[in-house]
Design brief:
361 residues; Alpha-Beta Plaits; elongated
Length: 361
């Protein structure tokens, strides 16, 4: 029923001459392979970093051979600003995806895209979420801007917070978006192309509910969730979880992500997969379970189709002839800091299970 897909957007620290920052020292080194131009640029960058400057240091060359022409660069200056989108409700990416809760990583992409129209900047890093099956409640990005642009950045962040507050209409009561200027620390930043590619992907990639069931009103059939966004040493890694009760819809979303990745020069891999599990209107086991529940508690059970990658899908993938039903105790706010289990319902499930096994004989 689900696919976890990892996306890698690889970046570099090379910067073009067309994107210069004011009050910035720029140094260009020329030499031949083996003369130490690259080493000198990296040593200078290290010294500048340790004295509290914002710095870039990188080489540019063709064939890696002794005597080949090489150019190396340094850029020293800039102000680092940390932007955060946080306080969202989050929740389970299957059970609660229909509630259209905000995904902080996707929202950060939208904010950065809006910011790029007003203020030139370079991404230092961007991170959000820790589980692929959780709607991301918090995300943070560090950016490098030229001195004097801090207030413009803060103004865009405040503007986006007001826009989101209006759009969610009170359904994200804890929503916060803020920014802080760092002092006295050095950093390296992505180049302009890498910055644009990361933002473009975050803006373009699909997310949330995509299709509803055509047989059962109100039930989500197909969705995906950007659960993990993290900056590694040489790339930005994003993990999506795709869910669908229809196998072909699942692969359609996979193909959409593949095209988004290719459009920004990235690459992707599939890390794990659950088979699709469609609702069976003729399930005999479900009827036994419902009748048993009514015998025990004197009322009809609540029977629902849920949008989640349950283990039944794995069993059916191996044995399509199985009759599978999933049931369990009451759990609220799954995969969030507020997750809670109703102990009384756990006891009821145990008694129900024993009675079901007796009636299945």
């Amino acid at each position: 029923m689900r696919i976890s897909r990892s996306v890698f957007l690889r970046g570099s620290f090379v910067e073009g001459d067309a994107d210069k920052m004011k009050n910035t020292v720029e140094i260009r080194w020329h030499g031949r392979g083996g003369q130490g131009a690259k080493t000198a640029a990296l040593l200078l960058a290290d010294v500048a970093f340790k004295t509290g400057k914002y710095v870039q240091g990188f080489p540019e060359y063709g064939p890696e051979r002794m005597g080949a022409p090489i150019t190396a660069y340094n850029r020293i200056s800039g102000d680092k600003i940390t932007i955060r989108v946080h306080g969202l409700l989050g929740g389970h990416s299957g059970m609660e995806i229909h509630k259209q809760r905000g995904n902080a990583s996707k929202m950060m992409g939208r904010l950065l895209y809006r910011l790029a129209k007003e203020v030139p900047f370079h991404l230092v890093c961007i991170n959000g979420g820790t589980k692929d099956n959780v709607i991301t409640p918090d995300a943070a990005a560090e950016i490098l801007v030229e001195p004097g642009k801090e207030q413009e950045v803060l103004a865009v962040v405040d503007e986006m917070k007001k826009i989101w507050t209006d759009e969610f209409m009170g359904e994200e009561p804890g929503l916060q978006a803020d920014a802080a200027v760092s002092q006295g620390a050095g950093c390296e930043a992505m180049d302009q192309d890498s910055t644009k590619h990361v933002i473009a992907y975050l803006l373009l990639c699909p997310n949330g509910c995509q299709e509803y069931s055509r047989k059962i009103e109100g039930v989500v059939e197909t969705s995906l969730n950007l659960g993990i966004l993290e900056t590694k040493e040489d790339c930005v890694r994003m993990i999506h979880q795709i869910r669908s009760s229809v196998e072909t819809r699942k692969y359609q979303l996979q193909e959409q992500l593949e095209q988004c990745v290719k459009a920004v020069g990235g690459e992707g891999t599939i890390t794990n997969e659950y088979p699709a599990w469609q609702y069976d209107p003729d399930s005999g086991l479900r009827q036994i379970m419902a009748d048993t529940y009514k015998e025990l508690y004197g009322k009809e059970p609540v029977i629902a189709v849920i949008h989640a990658g349950l283990e039944c899908g794995l069993f059916l993938g191996k044995r399509p002839d199985l009759d599978c039903v999933s049931f369990g105790p009451d759990v609220i706010d799954v995969h969030s800091v507020n997750e809670a289990l109703n102990l009384a319902s756990t006891q009821r499930v145990w008694e129900h299970l024993k009675a079901i096994l007796k009636n299945c004989r």
